[in-house]
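In line with agreed milestones, the collection of sequences with tokenised folds has grown. A representative record is reproduced below.
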Amino acid sequence: MKLATLRLTNFQCFGPETQEISFEDSTTMIIGPNGSGKTAILQALSRMFDANPGRRSVKADDFHVGIDEEEPPEERSFTIEADFLLPEAGTDSGANAIPPCFNHMRLDEAGEVLKVRFRLAATMGPNGDIADSLSYVVGKEGNGEDKIRGVPRTDRNNIAVYYLPARRDPNDHIRSSTTSLLGRIVRAVDWQKEAEDYKESVSELQALIEANPAVKATSKSISKSWAALHKGSHFKDAAITFGADSLEKLIQNFSVQFNPAHASKTIDYSLLSDGQKSLLYLSLVSAYIEIGRKAMAQETGEELGIDLDKLNPPVFSIIAVEEPENSLSPHYLGRINKLLAKTCSATDAQAIVTTHAPSMLRRIEPEHIRFARLGTERTASVKQIELPPETEMDAHKFVREGLLSNPEIYFARMVILGEGASEDIVLPKLFEARKLPLDENGIVLAQLGGRHVNYLWKILSDLRIPHATLLDLDLARYHGGWGRIKYAKDQLAKVGVDVGKATLPKWNASSPLGKDSDYGLKWLGFLGDKGVFFSQPLDLDFSMSQAFPESYGLDTRDQEQPDDVTIKSVLGNSHADDTWYSKTLKKGFDDYHRLFKVGSKPTAHIEALSNLDLDEIDADLPEQYRELIAYVSEKLKEVFE
């Protein structure tokens, strides 16, 4: 059994247009900016199936209020639908996965997997009175309306959502969970043999204590005083007792303790930190699910000594964890991922986690991520990450690894795709010089601007994350110049941008490019309008060393024309006509070779930038970077925050 789909209509920040969210078989990560609907998704499931019935109550805040609403309506309403797939139906493994009470399975089309659809519908009147009902949606009536049947309480309890919210009273939440989860196990245990042994032992202990002279005297004094006040035949004798006189009373006071402790042998769980209590909650849930599996696998729970009817474990469990990074150190997040993956590896459990922590996404497949976003109408929507098809193995692998390596892009207000490490070092300083610091504005740099960039553009566009791309023009290098422009043009065409039908010159054609070419400037301008910019005429390393020669240690007075060996080192063996570079620019080839071919690019940039203040950078900033920064600045104004 698996939760396949959740549909939300007019629930919290989800508006009147129904939003459908799909889920993975094991763990699904939900990410997105603040206020984008992540919590609403978990609370929707909690309203339907929370393991604590008290948390299923519908609240006034659950009803969506439109941003342009002037007068409240006569009645507000919302619906939540959850589809559970039952692939085990008709198989031997399905005995425990499909409870007998699920008599409302549906098959919409031949060949589909059987499913059960639940619908929580709620209304609120003008006085705040709320009515809600949980129903099965079993098909269609003759008039086309949905055919629904009420869900009995016993059916509802077959699914349990264990919800760990980000904002909570840890003491209350963990206390109630400890009592309910552990208490259910303890009450289901067959204590018959242990109870007899305990009664004998406690009688011996009581007799030993009562033999103490001080205890005996105190007990006698109490009994004498009581007899003077109470003359009835009932309750006429009073005596001191120590502890519970029966095992049943003893186990009512169970707790979880930890050792060793700093100042004592053990401490109670109530003394743990908030983060440790969160870990305890997840441990309890995982343990309870595991015990439930073992008990159901034995059908009667005899080997465990558990009464299955008393334990009554849910048939299906959903672990819903909200922003665990709020109370836990980063190194715990990987452990949580691992525990959830193990717990949810079977067909009777799933995990849904919301997070702002990129570290939690480094081990999560991009396909398992759902991206929540808030639109201009203040309504939420959810998108799934779509990778290139596996038939395009190279592109699929590149994009997948790129997203795993750069999870920060999911949380960006703006993404800049670059080609190398130089951009990561230089661009933050350039943006700061133009008074647009990257961190303060939620701008993320990612070294993903090379091949298969069209897939990244599509992903970012689908997620509505604005983006720009900075490529090297590579003039006169193999397939550089016009070849790079053609590459950008073709990539844009793949994502649906109208680039016209013009045929561009070949990369090694004699057609000029750049400042000497109106046609070249036209294309560079067109691509810039689409968010694609070029480090000209070669790459960012060359542009920066030419713009700030003194800081990069260049002595322009001693520069000479490069020899053929240097030209090939800079442009490559299969380069085009090097005369496309002016004599002045070519004089920089020797220093380029020394700094960026023989030397370390990061070292050269770090040392050079340390010699420049922000005003100096701004004064001599190459034009292509001014245009890039201006484009980013304008796009940020369109981002809804």
Observations:
- The CA atoms of residues 435 and 614 lie 9 Å apart.
- The longest strand covers residues 130-140.
- The chain has three domains: 2-158+314-361, 170-309, 386-637.
- The longest helix spans residues 274-297.
